[in-house]
Amino acid sequence: MHNMKHNYWEGKPISPVPISDNMTITQLVDEVFDGMGYNAKRLAQACHLFKTMIDENSTVCLTLAGAMTPVGLGGGIIKMMEKGFIDWIVTTGANTYHDLHFAYGLPVHQGDYTADDNELAEHEVVRIYDVYIDMQRTLIAQDKIIQALTRKAVEKNKFPEKYSTAFYYKTLGEGVLETAKAPELSFIASASKNDVPVFVPGFADSSMGMSASYLPIMASAKAGSSELNPGDFIDPSPTMDVLESAAIVHDSMIHDIPRGALEVGGGVPKNFLQQTGPMISQIIGMECPGENYVIQVTVDRPDTGGLSGATINEGKSWGKIPKAGEGNVIPYIDATVGIPIIFAYALENCKPRKLKRLNGRLPLITQELIETARMNVYSKKPNK
User: What positions carry a catalytic annotation?
Assistant: First the structure.
């Protein structure tokens, strides 16, 4: 007999997996992936963890890096919001921009990743790997739509003096719902309709920011002036983004609601979500353990500074998760494969939830966070 500190043989025995006719997604995940190793096993764990988030009524955030909407991932996101499985979103400007093409019927087609890009450029075809987008009929047409919708909102005085990107996209989504041929194909429109906040912390780093920056130039030209009117600027506040996102986490904490994250890739969206814990604990001074559950679907690696510079477990040292090695999993798999499987598994195994409608509550819960911060500052003042 060997003296073993651990029971190394408590895991399920591995045997050739049973692939059968007419398997459901649940059977594929539970009977095949869960009985395997490598990233099949991790994907099964991700499906189960996402189900746990939903079943425990966690406040679930989706972070979306890169350009996922051009390949059609927005349809699954829309369904998750409608079922109440996703409560708020942090994404890149690129994903919000390309999302709108579908609502307005602008050309986005499958292409060829081996194409001659010089030839594509001559024909004004823009390539995102194996996706083709038309420069004139899609991108420039989309720019004009965004500018028109934003300008109309400015003229109606819809923007307060200070506002977040979540407020901007709520307003933009309302315009899409009113004017698009097929608003049901836009996750921005769906988020607006279902009161799901959409934060874009890198707003300037996209065609959305480019279009917004052009508005004051248009307005000054129309007025016959060479000077820009500050009232014509569309300028979402990074400060408001930080406060409102932290307020969502703070509100869940004080009501004992678990917090979960489904991270598609890494980048700014991932870090922006995960900084909410340090914002509350490190800056405001209120204890915050971070996200209870985290799934990251990625093909990045940490030793080159990828994964936004950190594995999920490394986030423990920053106060981004309660405990390393628990409540998190990283399937190292293409998100366009992994995320639809996670979504489909949730649809087969989870009951719809009541929508949290956080957008409508943002002013109140942000004010509550500010009051908490003020009290902490006051309590730390030295006695005279």
Answer: 320
